[in-house]
Design a protein that fits this description.
- By secondary structure, this protein is mostly beta strands.
- The protein is built from 2 helices and 25 strands.
- It has helices spanning about 10-25, 65-75; strands at about 5-10, 25-35, 40, 45-50, 60, 80, 85, 90, 95, 100-105, 110, 115, 120, 125, 130-135, 140, 145, 150, 155, 160-165, 170, 175, 180, 190, 195-200.
- Strands 7-10-13-16-19-22-24-25 form an 8-stranded mixed sheet, covered by helices on one side.
- Helix 2 links the parallel strand 5 (about 60) and strand 6 (about 80).
- The longest helix is centred in the N-terminal third of the chain and has 12 residues, at about 10-25.
């Protein structure tokens, strides 16, 4: 059955999600944005969000890369949040993916991994067995998490980063591009380098 999806956020990230929606055989009804700077994304009209009636039955995916903004929007509107999974992504039947989460092309989610709500599992990311990814987290393109890794709410794992097995990364942390994480990371920490080291903390 074909679904008609509303996307919230007219960004470059929106384009990638829209491709996945079309490849799933679904359609996009409209793209919402709080401050529209364009009239269309591809052929789909961009509508000022306050002018579009969202109901509890609206199938909606938040197409914004910023983790804090996704959280804010998800908490202020009532809709039927829709997960979008690219057909080339590989998901174990023993894994689970929360509402509003997007899983991009070539991503792999292995058995007994649990992905929270409104996450981004980006292009080519690998999440091995028994991982737990908190709500609003972003696992960037080609990042790799070994088995039994825990990632807290809102954390951003940068492009090409690697996390060894059994590591716990706290909430709203940032792991920089290409970092290699060998030990646990505290909440709000910013980690860079190989081996990964904390260089500062984000604002709570």
């Amino acid at each position: 059955m074909e679904n008609s999806i509303v996307l919230y956020g007219a960004s470059g990230h929106c384009k990638v999600i829209m491709d996945s929606v079309f490849l799933q055989g679904d359609t996009v009804e409209a793209v919402l944005d709080d401050n529209p700077k364009k009239e269309h994304v591809f052929e789909i009209p961009v509508v000022k969000a306050e002018n579009f009636k969202i109901t509890k039955n609206t199938l909606l995916t938040i197409s914004i890369g910023d983790n804090k903004v996704r959280k804010m929007i998800s908490e202020k509107i009532s809709a039927k949040f829709h997960k979008v999974i690219h057909p080339t992504a590989i998901l174990s039947k023993h894994s689970s993916v929360g509402e509003g989460t997007v899983v991009m092309a070539g991503a792999i989610i292995n058995p007994d991994s649990v992905i929270g709500k409104h996450c981004i599992i980006n292009t080519g990311a690998v999440i091995d067995h028994d991982c737990n990814i908190g709500d609003y987290a972003h696992i960037s393109p080609n990042a790799s998490l070994a088995g039994d890794v825990k990632v807290g709410q809102g954390t951003h794992i940068g492009i090409g980063a690697s996390v060894i097995q059994g590591v716990t990364i706290g909430k709203w942390a940032i792991v920089g591009a290409g970092a290699v994480v060998l030990k646990d990371v505290e909440d709000y920490a910013v980690v860079v380098g190989n081996p990964g080291r904390i260089i500062k903390y984000t604002e709570k």
